[in-house]
Predict the structure.
Amino acid sequence: MTGPAPYQSPISPGRSWYEDSVSERPRYPRLDGSLDVDILVVGGGYTGLSAALHLAKSGVRVCLLETARIGDGASGRNGGQFGTGHRVWPEDLEPQVGLERARRLFALAEDAKAHLHEMMAANDIDADYRPGQVSLAHKRRYVDDFRRHAQILRERYDYASINFLDREATSARLGSSTYFAGLHDTGTGHIHPMKLLVGTASAAAAAGALLFEETPVASVGRVGGRIRAETTFGTVTADRALLATNGHGGTLNRRNAAHVMPIRSFIAATEPLAEPERVLPGGEAADDSRFVVRYFRKSVDGRLLFGGREAYSSSEGDIAGQIRAQIADVYPHLKDVGITHAWGGSVAVTMTRMPYVASPEPGLTAIGGFSGHGVLLSHFTGRLYAERVAGNRDRLAELEALKVPAFPGGTALRAPLLFLAMTWYALRDRF
Ligand SMILES: Cc1cc2nc3c(=O)[nH]c(=O)nc-3n(C[C@H](O)[C@H](O)[C@H](O)COP(=O)(O)OP(=O)(O)OC[C@H]3O[C@@H](n4cnc5c(N)ncnc54)[C@H](O)[C@@H]3O)c2cc1C
């Protein structure tokens, strides 16, 4: 007897190992008819769900609309690595924003860590958190930058959880001598992204947020002093709206689309390793210094989850084969390892690689573009949006004040221009 075909997201390629290792994903209904609420959220990833959760908990009537199933975007399919700070090192932000603001932005990202741990504890979410992160220099010329970065974080950013690793110490921590140096960060860690996603959605629904799946928003904008969203299945009218569509927003809002660009990243899960102690024996997550970053870690059942290859075109190609070759660069003994799952997702990037927070029109706020560094930050900015609506704090303003320019080339040329730029960076990674 054959059962129903396994679910395949209509917006992201491949079935993830996360999908097969989370208990049943809850189903939410389609919108059916018209609704009038205080706040509308478009997009069911961490940003939108966290906003919905915190808004509902503060007594706001909130409704969230998701095109596909909740978690089909980046939030259900990512590398699960928290990291520290933002995608851009704080010392590299200093020339643009000055030391004091760079320190505030760094502190905000530290608040994001505390937020996630508190939120998971308060809502009884077990997302398989494991501590530790190792960042790796893939070129000899980056070694001094890594050493200096650890020192700067300790001295200028009061972050004492990071230590420089020389080549020998890096090899021991990694189980591979491929990299020239590393940074060992004991103040961060990694999670099962889909468990966090499902837990946040369930908590939001329990708090009274109205969640609707398979309900694409066709248009959203200001009509007669209120926000109105049109879908095939009904209309939602609200006082304000959050666009949390990230790399999947298409041209729903043209200003958002000009600032937030999707690029695709791919991950493969191996079968449980025969000798798991030979790979990252301390259980950390790892990421490297490539522009097209490679990121990997072990799952709780001893698989290697390895992400790397980014693509800027529409074809996926042989994800498993290409990731296996990247695994073999680091762990030659795994050159023939069996791969059980291979999948991809849309990472949303900005020109500066810092998040885009803006109000394209009165009452409408857009948040996205975390540039591969959004597990912590997207969840936290959702909460910051809720704080802004409640009117008690406005920490979101710190991110909104960042000057993130639009991509050049308009909607027609930006994708080919980005393809050229990324190809150049990918080539630079090799030499
Ligand atoms: C393969 C991969 C690996 C990654 N690894 C890491 C990592 O290790 N660490 C890290 O920090 N970050 C990582 N990221 C990035 C991280 O996952 C994102 O920054 C974060 O999940 C963004 O959450 P979000 O809610 O803003 O967007 P998403 O989770 O992408 O959610 C946006 C949602 O909006 C919905 N939507 C779009 N348009 C509409 C519409 N018109 N109507 C209704 N709904 C709509 C989409 O369907 C989607 O579900 C990775 C991303 C990918 C893809």
About this structure: Residues 158 and 426 are 33 Å apart (CA to CA). The longest strand covers residues 339-349.
